[in-house]
Design a protein that fits this description.
Layout lengths: L3 E9 L2 H17 L3 E5 L13 E7 L2 H8 L2 H10 L3 E9 L7
Antiparallel strand pairs: 1-3, 1-4, 2-3
Length: 100
């Protein structure tokens, strides 16, 4: 079964307030078994319009990734992010088919 992922791109506008979101989102991520593959870090954006911060979270499957986003735990965390950051978030199913 293919894993599920969150791909987030974020510009933090209130760094102190954003810390509250980071602390609160841990409850949802623990409950749904999320694992950070990317959390900030150095990057290059050769195409498109980048944001300052990039995050990739891995879940056991797509359904779990979607359930985490719609959970009450994440809704509470997201409410703390609203107004403190501009974010793009994509929830996507991984690929486990043939490789080149």
């Amino acid at each position: 079964m293919a894993k599920g992922y969150w791909i987030g791109r974020v510009d933090v506008t209130d760094p102190e307030g954003y810390k509250e979101y980071v602390a609160a989102n841990a409850a949802a991520f623990r409950k749904y078994g999320a694992r950070f593959l990317v959390r900030g870090g150095t990057f290059e954006a050769p195409e498109g319009t980048p944001r300052a911060r990039n995050v990739v979270l891995e879940f056991k499957d797509y359904a779990t990734a979607v359930a985490c986003y719609h959970s009450p735990e994440y809704a509470a965390a997201k409410a703390l992010r609203d107004g403190r950051a501009l974010a793009d978030l994509l929830i996507i199913e991984g690929y486990d088919g043939p490789q080149p």
